[in-house]
């Protein structure tokens, strides 16, 4: 899987969550933000699948 850089603005109230997870998981902030992003993306895909909007072959 390739990676691309993308400028992103995040709400300030997200940063305390990033700090908390950074300390709990012993990773840097960038890694934490990627993990949270992937968690949200996975939840979104599962929701689409549950509603019949996508199939396993399209994921």
Brief descriptors of the model:
59 residues; mainly alpha; 2 helices; 56% helix; elongated
Outline type: elongated
Structural class: mainly alpha
Question: What separation lies between the terminal Cα atoms?
Answer: 14 Å
Overall mean pLDDT stands at: 93
Helix percentage range: 55-70%
Low-pLDDT regions? none
Query: What profile does the largest beta sheet have?
Result: none
Number of strands: 0
> Helix tally?
2
- H-E order: HH
Question: Can you give a write-up of this model?
Answer:
By secondary structure, the chain is mainly α. It has a domain at 12-48. α1 packs across α2. 56% of the residues lie in helices and 0% in strands. It has two helices and no strands. The protein has helices spanning 15-25, 29-50.
What is this structure's SSE topology?
Elements: H1 15-25, H2 29-50
Helix pairs in contact: 1-2
Task: Briefly say what this structure is.
With 59 residues, this protein is mainly alpha-helical.
